[in-house]
Amino acid sequence: xxxxxxxxxxxxxxxxxxxxxxxxxxxxxxxxxxxxxxxxxxxxxxxxxxxxxxxxxxxxxxxxxxxxxxxxxxxxxxxxxxxxxxxxxxxxxxxxxxxxxxxxxxxxxxxxxxxxxxxxxxxxxxxxxxxxxxxxxxxxxxxxxxxxxxxxxxxxxxxxxxxxxxxxxxxxxxxxxxxxxxxx
Length: 184
Fold this sequence. Notes:
About 20% of the residues lie in helices and about 20% in strands. With about 180 residues, the protein is α+β, with helices and mostly antiparallel strands. The strands form 2 sheets. A 5-stranded antiparallel β-sheet has the order 2-3-4-1-7, covered by helices on one side. It is globular.
């Protein structure tokens, strides 16, 4: 997540008539050095706030890992700033390009130095379909325990994942219903 302040607006300002739902996007996937997709997330305040917010979707270069130590009975997460360094580089690149085009500065008011690295929209992965589950979301080794959410997707899919998550959930639910409740 990132943002810009003091944005020069073309139609009277930012924040006057926008909704909170991202309705526009910037597709930058084809760039070899800085591939990303940005959802434009307005800040609706009913007045010109000269601020634009962005939800940036990046490709994962380095996956995290969750492990469990049986002896210590401890869950560990291997995830640190090295996992998101390229995402921050992409955000810096994007902000410089946008600010050169129509003014503005990094949003220091809303985020630390203009970046919300602690904000994660639509996290994916962790219990991957076909690996940690069967092809229908049934958790391996557990007859009646299903995972039917975004954790089934192994990584970046390129855009807001709500439609993909919904399709996978419906696919899994259809099989669950057929195999457990609708069988003759």
